[in-house]
Amino acid sequence: MTINKTSSTAPVTVTPSVNSNKPLSSETKANAAPGKKASAGVSSQMQLLGLAKQFVLDGALLSPEKQMPIEDRARKRERLLHLRKQQNLEMIIQKTIGYCSDSEITDRADQDWFNSYLALAEDIGNRTMQDLWAKILAGEISQPGTFSLKALKVFRSLNINEAKLLAKACGLAVKDQGKKSMRILSGVYQKPGLFNMFDKHRENKINLAHWGLSYTELLVLADNDLIFIQETESSPVRKNDSVHFTYNGQQLTLTARKNDCILNFYKFTPIGAELASLIADNPDDDFLTDVKQQLNHHFATSG
């Protein structure tokens, strides 16, 4: 899946009443004019007032004669929270139907897994994230055991920006053929020897930051248990031997031009590789061209 920027939060019209012992600023008065809608340009105070009203937390901001009893406010907030959770889950189920087959016969889904899934998904209100949770549910029902509860808990902790960062990493990653192992190539070098010690191209790095994945962003992925931050390397590849990958659905074969060529990479964790299945192939031809150029001194590339 290509992560988009759809948001589930609709603009809110807010005309709050505020405790009389703190007068509204001129900016707040202007924004609170009848019929004026909240937008990205409103003040932080107006945004807070809108959220407080939406989540039934604005009681203390009202004048005493307009306040509901706090017990009633608490019950109203609890009722709205339950309704919001119900609405979130129903939206996810509605989206999931579109990803499920109406004819394919599958094994029976694990009800305990489904119950745990509901507890993790009920607070997901962002439409983009709801779509990803729908893909998780559809994938698990179609093939039980696809997504572990551990992976769901990690995914639940991701915000929308971190989910987009995972999508970016998937867009730069290669997979071993026939395996679930995923890695982001970061460079190449040849083991030092008598005949290459003065070769200025003996080691080449791929500038991942140029393609939107800086070291800081790699750290974010590592903090979320999606990749290993320690850069690792392949076994030495002998001259004329080949290494086979797929890059976003495209075949990529690297054939060593000389002995003892070694690839550097950042490897996805098992959880990262598991969640990567949510992201559709999205090859970047310019990135692939850059990778081939950086590897060209050591490997002939095809595919």
Written overview of the protein:
With about 300 residues, the chain is α+β, with helices and mostly antiparallel strands. It folds into three domains: about 1-65, no CATH class; about 75-155, no CATH class; about 160-300, no CATH class. About 40% of the residues lie in helices and about 15% in strands. The chain is built from ten helices and eight strands. Strands 1, 2, 3, 4, 5, 6, 7 and 8 form an eight-stranded antiparallel beta sheet that branches.
Quickly list its features.
40% helix; eight-stranded antiparallel β-sheet; 14% strand; 303 residues; single chain; 8 strands
Largest sheet: 8 strands, antiparallel
Helix and strand pattern: HHHHHHHEEEHEEEEHHE
Question: Helical proportion?
Answer: 25-40%
Assign an overall shape. Answer: elongated
Which structural category do the helix and sheet elements fall into? alpha+beta
Mean pLDDT: 84
Percentage beta strand: 5-15%
Low-confidence stretches: 1-39
Radius of gyration: 26 Å
Count the beta strands. 8
Number of helices: 10
How many domains make up the 3D coordinates?
Answer: 3
